[in-house]
Amino acid sequence: MHNLRVEDTYFPSNKHLRLKDKLFDLSKPKVMGIINCTPDSFYSKSRYNSDLETLNKVERLINEGIDIIDIGGYSSRPGAKEISVEEEISRVLSPIISIKKEFGNIPLSIDTFRAEVARISLENGTDIINDISAWEIEPELLDIISHYKCPYILMHMKGIPKTMQQNTNYENILSSIISFFSKKLQILKEHGMYDVVLDPGFGFGKTLEQNYEILNKMEQLKMLGKPILAGVSRKSMIYNKLNSDSSNSLNGTSILNTIAILKGASILRVHDVKEAKEVINLLNF
Questions:
Q1: pLDDT digit string (tens) for 6-27?
Q2: 30-282 architecture in CATH?
Q3: Which of 148, 157, 183, 186 suits 248 as a labelling partner, its CA being 20 to 30 A distant?
């Protein structure tokens, strides 16, 4: 009997991702938990500075029901300090190796826009590339992801993290994002890349009002036929509207995550896994 491979079997592209030789089911929304190996992430409780500390955090997140771990070594908050490629690699490589060794069954994503960081991460077991830049900062990244055929999170952003909030003019923001994604998806298709997740990029080159317009109309992105990731966790679109701060934004995060799921999000990228899983369970998924 012929043994079917994943590649030989059709699955709707908005309901599954191919992780190496396995299928990752997105018919029920999943939770991506954030591990920041940075000293300056905007939410201080997401920062982890040693392998032991990181492994303890991951174990706790697994107990809370995490579906994907997203690790990053470069802070992308507005005005963030730039660091070298070598520094970024030194921050993430050891935690990646440790996590894959101890918790190899949990899909691991690397949050980077740098080709060399992506390559080294993939060589050491990372499953997914989460790129805020859509390979516009380092075009070589496209070659890396197409070579490894790994799932790719494609995010919309204007400019670079340091300057992104200086250019927030859009004639129609949803139309602009859909056009941007359509062009990028065509390029990815030409490179044999089909396992793509769309992230509208809340807080990346958008005003407070634009962030909420995207959230409230996010179902329009479903026309592109790809899974949608929503990353609103503890962001300024919550605490600026409530005159608060990131440490007091959990309730707001849960409310916006609820809206995101109802608008079609398949993945929630969060700092607080337990609460995000509760949102999904209460919505009867």
A1: 444 445 677 899 998 899 999 9
A2: Alpha-Beta Barrel (3.20)
A3: 157
